């Protein structure tokens, strides 16, 4: 009997060591890469950390804390979206803070879930249980953008019939870990103090369900997708105690939305807000898992006849049109092109050219290829483009 117990103990210890070794190699394979310098001829683009909560609602940090975190993490702009308040705008927080642009939007509590209202410039609200279409119309008429927040999260978006709604969040920094298993979360906790970059990256997966919802809606109308943070830097504990985790700075470096503006920002807040919001509105943007590698060099374009169009465009079909994806990276990547949400063609390389086979909603995803000794090669989502519609 003691012999059997001893063997079991040795077996358990060996299993635990293997689990640790696998976790260590996995987290190491998830570490950040530095990006090659982007082609200077590319259209101007700006990376933003969108969907941030401050102490104006249920966030743990003040606007000053958020700006400081933004300056350390390095996005070009931040979008504050406190729950049901535009007070930060009235208090004069929107603007450039030592070169970092802070825009103030709002996360509106509606009958169908949480709705981000960007670029509206004033407080908006749903009026009564049937007031959702009117709210969305009001946002649109004020030149703003309406985006369904965490559509597949704990508080999902439930009404996709609203005509004018502009888009949805594909990633949400606050929901990402919720779909992971207990063992995965336990492993994350064990390695968090030693390999935080790898741990955070490892928790972000391709948002299959949100992509499915996006494509379902995109068959009928243009839909913008963004990558969001839902950054709170606050996990409530008991009483009024809380844990300041995950930090704003961490999340600002994890997921970003890159906005292709087609024109340089001017340094004037009102003008620049309009440039960015209009570009998001037309879907001229892409989602990046920034924790792997910045993606200022990415492009997804369609050349049809004499015209070249980028994400967010709708183009009439002609024979001979070509789709072109470029995804410069310092490591191996896989580019996959989708038509109506279905994989069409893929390549292991930094560039993909393909003739447009017909009408459809085209988008592309770029995966980073990361391998470990025990698991071999894994493809990890890095970039998700907005769509180009061929009609
Ligand atoms: Zn929310
Ligand atoms: Zn939120």
Give an overview of the whole structure:
Helix 1 crosses helix 6. The strands form three sheets. The chain has a 16-stranded mixed beta sheet that branches. It has a four-stranded antiparallel beta sheet with strand order 14-13-16-19, with no helix packed on it. A two-stranded antiparallel ribbon has the order 9-10. It starts with a helix and ends with a strand. With 391 residues, the protein is an alpha+beta fold. It has nine helices and 22 strands. It folds into two domains: 251 residues, Alpha-Beta Barrel (TIM Barrel); 94 residues, Immunoglobulins (Immunoglobulin-like, Sandwich), CATH 2.60.40.10. It is globular and about 75 Å long. The model has no long low-confidence stretch (mean pLDDT 94).
Topology:
Elements: H1 2-29, E1 45-52, H2 63-73, E2 77-83, H3 87-90, E3 95-97, E4 100-110, E5 113-118, H4 132-141, E6 145-148, E7 167-172, H5 182-191, H6 196-203, H7 208-218, E8 224-228, E9 235-236, E10 242-243, H8 248-252, E11 255-260, H9 269-281, E12 285-289, E13 299-304, E14 307-310, E15 314-315, E16 322-326, E17 333-339, E18 342-347, E19 351-355, E20 360-372, E21 376-385, E22 388-390
Parallel strand pairs: 1-2, 2-4, 6-7, 7-8, 15-22
Antiparallel strand pairs: 1-11, 3-4, 4-5, 5-6, 9-10, 11-12, 12-21, 13-14, 13-16, 16-19, 17-18, 17-20, 20-21, 20-22
Helix pairs in contact: 1-6, 5-6
The chain binds zinc ion (2 copies).
One zinc ion is lined by residues 51, 53, 107, 149, 230.
């Amino acid at each position: 009997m003691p012999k059997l117990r001893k063997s079991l103990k040795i077996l358990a210890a060996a299993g635990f060591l293997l689990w640790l070794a696998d976790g260590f190699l996995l987290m190491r394979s998830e570490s950040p890469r530095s990006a090659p310098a982007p082609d200077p001829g590319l259209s101007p683009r700006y990376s933003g950390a969108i969907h941030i909560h401050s102490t104006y609602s249920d966030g743990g940090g003040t606007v000053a804390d958020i700006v400081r975190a933004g300056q350390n993490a390095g996005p070009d702009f931040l979008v504050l979206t406190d729950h049901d308040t535009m007070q930060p705008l009235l208090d004069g927080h929107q603007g450039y803070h030592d070169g970092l642009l802070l825009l103030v939007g709002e996360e509106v509590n509606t009958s169908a879930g949480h709705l981000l209202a960007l670029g509206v410039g004033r407080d908006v609200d749903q009026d009564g249980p049937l007031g959702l279409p009117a709210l969305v119309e009001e946002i649109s008429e004020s030149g703003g953008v309406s985006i369904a927040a965490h559509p597949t999260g704990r508080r999902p978006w439930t009404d996709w019939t609203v005509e004018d709604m502009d888009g949805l969040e594909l990633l949400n920094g606050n929901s990402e870990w919720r779909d992971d298993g207990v063992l995965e979360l336990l492993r994350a906790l064990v390695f968090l103090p030693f390999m935080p970059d790898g741990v955070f990256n490892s928790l972000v997966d391709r948002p299959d369900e949100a992509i499915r919802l996006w494509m379902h809606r995109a068959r009928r109308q243009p839909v913008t997708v963004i990558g969001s943070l839902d950054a709170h830097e606050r996990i409530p504990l008991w009483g009024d105690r809380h844990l300041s985790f995950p930090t704003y700075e961490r999340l600002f470096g994890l997921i970003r939305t890159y906005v292709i503006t087609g024109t340089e920002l001017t340094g004037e807040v009102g003008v620049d807000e309009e440039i960015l919001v209009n570009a998001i509105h037309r879907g001229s943007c892409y989602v990046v898992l920034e924790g792997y590698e910045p993606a200022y060099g990415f492009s997804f374009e369609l050349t049809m006849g004499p015209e070249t169009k980028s994400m967010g465009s709708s183009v009439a079909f002609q024979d001979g049109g070509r789709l072109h994806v470029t995804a410069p990276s310092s490591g191996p990547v896989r580019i996959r092109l989708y038509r109506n949400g279905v994989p069409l063609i893929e390549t292991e390389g930094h560039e993909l050219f393909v003739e447009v086979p017909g009408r459809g909603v085209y988008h592309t995803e770029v995966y980073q290829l990361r391998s470990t000794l025990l698991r071999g090669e894994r493809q990890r989502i890095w970039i998700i483009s907005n769509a180009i519609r061929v009609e």
